[in-house]
Amino acid sequence: MTSAVSFKKVSRHFGSVRAVDAVDLDIAPGEFFAMLGPSGSGKTTCLRLIAGFEQPTAGSISIFGERAEGVPPYRRNVNTVFQDYALFPHLNVLDNVAYGLMVKGVGKTERLKAAEEALSLVRLPGYGTRRPGQLSGGQRQRVALARALVNQPKVLLLDEPLGALDLKLRENMQEELKSLQKVLGITFVFVTHDQGEALSMADRVAVFNDGKIMQVGTPEDIYQRPNTRFVADFVGSSNVLPPDFVQRYSGQHRWGSLRPESIRVSGATSGDGVAARLVGTNYLGATTRLALDADGLRLHAVVPAGTALPAEGEAVMLTFNRDSLHLMDEPA
Amino acid sequence: MRSDRGQRAPLGLKIAAACGLLFLHLPILLIFVYAFTTEEKSFVWPPPGLTTQWFAVTWNRPDVWDALSLSVRVAAISTAIALVLGTLCAAAVSQTRFFGREAISLLVILPIALPGIITGIALRSAFALADIPFSFWTIVLGHATFCVVVVYNNAVARFRRTSGSMIEASMDLGADGFQTFRHVVLPNIATALLAGGMLAFALSFDEVIVTTFTAGQQQTVPIWMLEELIRPRQRPVTNVVAMVVVLVTLLPILFAYYLTRDGDQIAGSGK
């Protein structure tokens, strides 16, 4: 099967900075794919390589089997929803959405009809006569989405699509984007630094760091079975356990990852478990996050709200299921 | 000391302001009045009588028409050159990063900061060195040096307020470079270019110093006026021409002012 997007040893260097460094990547058709990473990790450059705003320094990119190097953005069947939406302020909403069809020479009545349909798809019917400046942030985002989708791209690229929206709107848009993607069956590739967003929306996630992909997998893979300390820490702030510690519990001298919610905290002072001291509590609503000190090793645990807790500074006993201790591939 | 908005300004301040404005504009009004005087050899106040005959006299003087037509042609062509070069330069400086960008930005603005006489002498010696005879085109070249600055300044300010991702968005949606320029860039900078172009036109129209250094025997309107002041006959003709010049330069500048005043909303509403 042909990949929707395929990177083979793709690099993009800016002077001495290796923004993207020998990345191999295959995105399947119809997939909802997330590129997750801290800022400066190369995820946005990868997106711009797919869009055609950047050309690779080395390696090859293909989009649905067609070589993409040297092909300008306007000759790729790929559309982008920009982080700042980049709507055209001098055109009204309908002309904004119809822009792609207009430059392709589609007749006026036909393109305005298609634009109106695209606007109803993003639930903004009848907003065509307004100016972008008269819309709220969430509405502009939908217009940007409609403007990209009206061209029926094979791949839709989204650059931090929800970054500028407030929490409530962001949650709504997450669900909406996901259902839109299901209905349309288009390959979505989106860039985010928010691990919650990546895990909740994507079919598969690529975690970027320093221009390289650290791990690609389903959200569950990434979350439950991180392969490196970076992934464990960046995705869901897992407890990264040093090899010496891990050896005591698994017999293997390797780095381990233990999710905060897998740790049980009790006030017992003796018995099986890891002796620790509670050094801080952080109330998060549905859960409470505990900061623990186990003989110099800083650990975090997340317990459901309402759990009876010892006072700060008291000794506690930590227990966890051996199965939830994940051993990472990274060499010790 | 307070300066509340509701409070009225003291009388002394009002009188001072009125005097200032009168000082600035009364001489201009005086020139208009002298265009109607019956005394042709010297300017006498009050005018001994009023007449409109000078308008007819001016109309029938071929030297006036020559000067006017030269000025209009020079201003139009200098402005056209400035529009192309100024826009290209502004686009380069504001849309890309390259070595020496700040230096270029400064060098482009320099001709308007330098005294006109320096620009004039420099151009004259350059033309002499290159053995270029003075002509219509040397005047145009001289004027274009400062017209470019005006267009550049207007265009660069607008480019800075135009989001760079808009151009990428246009390319992304399938528009090539030319289509992007025509459908996205031009509509967003059009009013800035119009304003810059009109200012450039007005500047070129009443330029004296650079013109004296770059013109041969030809006379633009301001040069013609200077010569005319020395002659003893038909003085009010100069005043009639002065009225025309004031109108020709004032109207575009007013229009340019209104265009750029509203410019914020045109270019900045994308964010």
Task: Walk me through what this model shows.
The complex is a heterodimer of chains A (about 325) and B (about 270). With about 325 residues, chain A is an alpha+beta fold. Chain A has 2 domains: about 5-230, P-loop containing nucleotide triphosphate hydrolases (Rossmann fold, 3-Layer(aba) Sandwich); about 235-325, Beta Barrel (OB fold (Dihydrolipoamide Acetyltransferase, E2P)), CATH 2.40.50.100. Helix content of chain A is about 30%, strand content about 30%. Chain A has 9 helices and 18 strands. In chain A, the strands form 4 sheets. A 6-stranded mixed β-sheet of chain A has the order 6-7-8-3-9-10, with helices on both faces. In chain A, strands 13-17-14-15-16 form a 5-stranded antiparallel β-sheet, with no helix packed on it. In chain A, strands 2-1-4-5 form a 4-stranded antiparallel β-sheet, with helices on one face. In chain A, β7, α5 (about 165-185) and β8 (about 185-190) form a beta-alpha-beta unit. Chain B is mostly helical and about 270 residues long. The longest helix of chain B is centred in the N-terminal third of the chain and has 34 residues, at about 60-95. Chain B has helices spanning about 10-35, 55-60, 60-95, 100-115, 115-130, 135-160, 165-170, 175-205, 210-215, 220-230, 235-260, 265-270. Chain B has one domain: Orthogonal Bundle (MetI-like fold), CATH 1.10.3720.10. The radius of gyration of chain B is 23 Å and the shape is globular. In chain B, α2 crosses α11 (about 235-260). Chain B is built from 12 helices and no strands. The interface of A and B includes residues 72, 75, 104, 131 and 151 of A.
